[in-house]
Amino acid sequence: MATEQPMGPTDEQLEILEYNFSKVNKHPDPTTLCLIAAEAGLSEEETLVSAPVPTALLLGPETHLPTQPRRTPHHTP
Fold first, then answer.
1. Nearest-CA neighbor of 11 among 53, 41, 35?
2. Domain containing 15: what range?
3. Neighbours of 50 (CB within 10 A)
4. CB under 8 Å to 30, separation ≥6 — which residues?
5. Fewest Cβ atoms closer than 10 Å to its Cβ: which of 15, 24, 60, 67?
6. Is residue 70 part of a domain?
7. In sequence order, what are the residues at sequence separation of 6 or more whose Cβ sits closer than 8 angstroms to the Cβ of residue 52?
8. Main localization of the protein (predicted)?
9. CATH number, position 49
């Protein structure tokens, strides 16, 4: 029995995602993300994974993980 390999998005779906994320809105809100997913025929999760830009950028700065402040080296005289 052959097992099915998971398929990535089609070229048409990638074109839809690229257009929406690159030219329309790089930081879609949840409702817009849902609409983009529906247009591409993908789930919201598949849309985030397949998006042509990093997910953290799609979700906006409020969802980024907190970062440690940069420490400056101490200069001793």
1. 41
2. 11-54
3. 18
4. none
5. 67
6. no
7. 14, 17, 18, 21, 22
8. nucleus
9. 1.10.10.60
Tens of pLDDT, residue by residue, the chain (77 residues)? 555 555 778 899 989 998 998 888 888 889 999 999 999 999 998 888 776 654 555 555 554 444 545 555 565 66
Domain count along the chain: 1
The pLDDT value given to residue 25: 81
Among residues 21, 14, 16, the alpha carbon closest in space to that of 55 is found at 21
The neighbour count for residue 23, using CB atoms within 10 Å, is 8
